[in-house]
Design a protein that fits this description.
2 copies of one chain form a homodimer.
Chain A: H1 4-7, H2 9-21, E1 29-31, E2 38-40, E3 47-55, H3 67-83, E4 88-98, H4 104-120, E5 124-132, E6 137-145, E7 161-165, H5 170-179, H6 193-199, E8 205-208, H7 213-224, E9 227-231, E10 249-253, H8 258-264, E11 272-279, E12 285-288, E13 294-296
Parallel strand pairs in A: 4-5, 9-12
Antiparallel strand pairs in A: 1-2, 3-6, 4-6, 7-10, 7-11, 8-10, 9-11, 12-13
Chain lengths: ~300, ~300
């Protein structure tokens, strides 16, 4: 079994660059992996840029997911940020921190999973970095384009309805089981690039659910200077209101755009569910039970430094 | 003293985004820090994309440099990669892994150092990520433009002369002293964006010295399918041939471009010294002492997984 300390940083990178170079040429790539930087040819649209990381023992533990699944997940958390802006990913760089005893084949599989997931979403892995570290940490930066309006968190108004794509809570549930030592599989995050691009045409504001619905709606509220009310009856479980890492999209839709939303809904590739509404006033998120009681008015969700 | 666990991820990011938003508007920025992704307006030239990381206990140890100097260094290692392509940095994202007990003010200073160094080189910090981790790790991705030719490692020919900007060995010496417990200051990496842009007009190939002159010239040789000979007498110390992290530029210049190099040299902002030449044959780097002996033909320099 070849470990990273057997292969070495430079040999591993050279082998990877050879494999990636063997792929069909793409006229967007002027200089691909293996040089000091990649050179790419963007379109004329505004560029979107984001970065996100998966850190061992923070976002996952060893054994929770196969290396290829971790790679796909590292792609997905970044693609989700672009999707939440209505963007389409184009290029990615991948910075890896890995322990010397890690199997080289596992790092290959991780990068392979990342690159394959990127390609499925229309993007190319064009470069990266590999450093030794005490644990595995996967940091990607992704560059995309906005084919339509750039959809921020800041455009929502009181009276807009809140929708969420797909379903919430599955990842949180798996993490809860895995952390308790039970058998579970960390689900692959949903692919919402297409939905984000289509929803950007009808939304007033959009954000992805990375830290939990209540918390991320709170972010949207602060950026838009509105309040929000979430209907717990619309979620599969109360748990889903605060579970993180679902990477679904939360979309604010003005009443006048509801017909447009209904027209676009069949093409999203996922269901879209109304989960609440935006209110005038302070940026507070209230969660209302089916019987009308406010059951959760505090801040929930994930913060890396406050537990 | 406010530590990250007192401030929290989201509050820290919100405060930072407010500070960055207070800066003078730049028409290149459509959406700045604080949303899911940044939206920027590039020029029409090819884009250069790179990523590089500084990991605690790998690239530095606590106390070796002030937080602002670490931030400047994290900028510099990325800017150096763009400079080595003849590129000019434009936009950056910064992904931080930090322990909860870290002082929030130190992380502020780190990001401040990064952003200030980026601005000095004409670039803007447009986004980032903050995750908890067992140690400090600073990963940046930088997007730049190529105002002239995109200069890879691959264009050198036998007979080209090798030059190096500035001086080699200072960082390696400081690291050696610091690791031994002696007093030393980790020097700020040199700023070579201007030199790289000008040298790209006369060079056949270029690379930055991050892992050590011998090793990085070896990379250039493999990409260009040439051999190389380095004159030890041209370096301040034999040590400088293998010391890493100098972030100077190594440039291959064809004989016909020597007059052009002499014309451009006064405008580089640093000295440029001939250190060797490229040869036909296998991509082997020979180091020759002033008396003509080959003193070092093996691979030297830094590999993250092979010591």
């Amino acid at each position: 079994m070849r470990r990273l300390r057997d292969v070495g940083e430079h040999a591993w990178i050279a082998a990877l660059a050879r494999r990636l170079a063997g792929r069909p040429a793409d006229r967007r790539i002027l200089v691909g992996p293996g040089d000091d930087a990649a050179a790419v040819r963007p379109g004329r649209r505004p560029l979107l840029v984001t970065t996100d990381a998966l850190v061992e023992n923070v976002h996952f533990r060893a054994g929770w997911a196969a290396p290829a699944a971790l790679g796909r997940r590292a792609w997905a958390v970044n693609a989700s940020d672009l999707a939440a802006m209505g963007g389409v990913p184009r290029f990615a760089v991948l910075a890896l921190e890995a322990p010397p005893a890690m199997r080289a084949a596992d790092l290959d599989a991780l990068v392979g999973g990342f690159a394959a997931a990127a390609r499925r979403d229309g993007a190319l892995l064009v470069g990266g970095n590999l450093a030794a570290g005490p644990h595995l940490a996967i940091t990607a930066a992704v560059i995309g384009e906005a084919p339509g309006p750039v959809m921020t968190r800041a455009g929502a108004r009181p009276g807009d309805r809140l929708y969420v794509t797909g379903a919430l809570g599955a990842t949180g549930l798996a993490v809860r089981r895995l952390a308790a030592g039970a058998a579970a599989r960390l689900p692959d995050p949903p692919r919402r690039v297409r939905a984000g691009r289509l929803l950007a045409r009808v939304a007033s504001a959009m954000i992805d659910v990375s830290d939990g619905l209540v918390q991320d709606v709170g972010q949207l509220c602060r950026a838009s200077r509105v309040g929000a009310e979430i209907d717990l009856g619309r979620l599969a479980a109360a748990f889903a209101a605060c579970a993180g890492e679902d990477y679904e999209l939360v979309v604010a839709v003005p009443p006048a755009r509801e017909p447009a939303l209904r027209r676009v809904a069949p093409r999203l590739g996922c269901r879209i569910t109304p989960v609440g509404r935006l209110l005038a006033g302070r940026p507070v998120v209230r969660v209302r039970a089916p019987d009308g009681r406010v059951v959760h008015a505090a801040r929930g969700g994930f913060d890396h430094f406050r537990r």
